[in-house]
Structure formats: C-alpha cells, structure tokens
Fold this protein.
Amino acid sequence: MVSPPRLAVVGPTASGKSAVAHALAVEAGDIDIVSVDSMQVYRGMDIGTATPTAAERAAVPHHLIDIVDVDTEFTVAMFQEFLGAAFETVCAAGRRAVLVGGTGLYHRAAVDGLELAGSWPTIRERLESELARVGAAVLYERLRDVDPDAAERIDPANGRRIVRALEVGEGSGRRFSSFGQGLDRYPPTDVVQVGLRWERDVLAQRIEARVHTMFDMGLLDEAAAVLERGPSRTASAALGYAELFDHLRGACSLDEALHTTVANTRRFAVRQERWFRRDPRIRWVDVHDDPVAEVLPVLRAAW
C-alpha cells in the first residue's frame, strides 16, 4: 500500500459521513476523498448510492467513484487494486487522503491491507448451475473434502457461500479459508478511524427521509436505465435498485418498492453498525443534530 491514509470516517448509511469529510477537505485544501463504498464504484447509479455531486467533486478530488460499468462484477480484490492506484495518485500530488464509506470489508481491506480472494465468474456460473441441479448438501460435502476449515464456518444450507468457497479454491489453487485471515483481529494502525453514531430511531428517520428524497430525485428512472444496461449480480444487489427492479418487472407496486427500500436500508444500517462496533480502534462520536458541526472538530484534531 502506497502512502496509506491517516484518517477514515465510518458509520452506517445516512449518518452524514460524506458531508463531514467533504467539509474537512474543503477547509484543509489539501485533502482527497477516497470512497470506501462498494456501490459508488458504478457509473450511472448516482442517486441511489448518494454519489457526491458534480459540484462536490469539483471542489474536492474524489477517488473510486464511477470507475466501472454496471455490468461489471466488482470484487473486493478489484477494489484493492484501484485503491493502491488512488493512493499513488494522492501521494504524487503531495496531498492527503481520507477514507469515507460504509462498506465494512472494503474499509478493513484499506486500513489493514488484508489479502482477499478474487473472482472467477466462469467457475462460479458452472458451480451455480450445479447447485441448482444437485443442491447445497452435495456441494457442501465436496467443500468438506477440499477445505474443512471453510466448511466448518459455513452453514451447510447456504448455497451461495458454499459456491463462493469452491469457486475461490478452484480458481486460485488455494483454500478459501486461507484468504481474509485476520478479520477477527484488530492490529495497531496509524489510521485514525472516526465513527458517527446516532440513536437508532433518529437514524431510522434519517434513512426514511433520504429514501423519499431519492425517489423524488428520479431514482425510478435511474433504476430503469441501469436495468436496461444489464446490471451485474453485485450492482443488482444495491439498495433501492433491487427493489425497483422488482417493481419494473411487475412484481410489486411503486409504493411497495419504496417501503421495502426503507425497511431494507434500515436493516442494512443495523448490520453496518454491528460490523464497525467490533473494531475497538474506532473513535465514536455521538451525533445528535448536525454531523458537520459535531464531528468536524474531532477530525481536525486527528490530523
């Protein structure tokens, strides 16, 4: 990793991470923002992923945003490659980088440089077809033979994870269990990690307001354009888009898609909180009203 960042801003969706980091970068004048968001990498998904606006990106250099088309199967291994190039760019310009985002695994990969597995779509497609034919139990027994450590950690009924473990093993020539070691450990780091924490009911209200705003901004039209271009499996999982794809296919009404998006986003925020709470290195700031006013002083002190 070249010139790793000294600061990271984390927290659940709708917590105000981007606004706080942007305010810091504008104030400092020599800070680039490096996105740690698995969905902001996609072009044409700006509304639903809350991608920084053109004005915000003109004011502050941003990295790892709008870097692949929606039909690309994006992986954490690809993220690490782009991340290294972004750090080199920031370093060459004599600037500083701040990590901003809520994708927990990407954040750990950036902060701790974990070795994570790549992707082999052809192998996965074959294994998924086999899963549909013979069921998870058969593939699970195969996994137990080739990688007992991975099998021990995977639910025998979780066909998706079983396929992933077999895919990595076949594609890389290494056991799936040999990748990502260290996720349960939090070694010392020079990266100051600041987390935004809200009362859960207040965050739920912010999420609902945010989703309604996205729908008002034209998320339905954006989702229709993405669907027409043939989104990859990873892009298809994006909150808001997945629910609107169901609506566009006639599976639910627009109102049902909106309410499902709110509910799914709230559940996602809870999972994000749980992920980040496990990291004892994060300095949490309890936010009550204005993220910028309440968190910016902490970020200033971190530099």
Observations:
- The chain has a mean pLDDT of 94.
- Strands lie at 7-10, 31-35, 62-63, 96-100, 192-197, 282-286.
- Residues 254-277 form the longest helix (24 residues).
- The chain has three domains: 7-116+191-198+280-302, 121-178, 200-271.
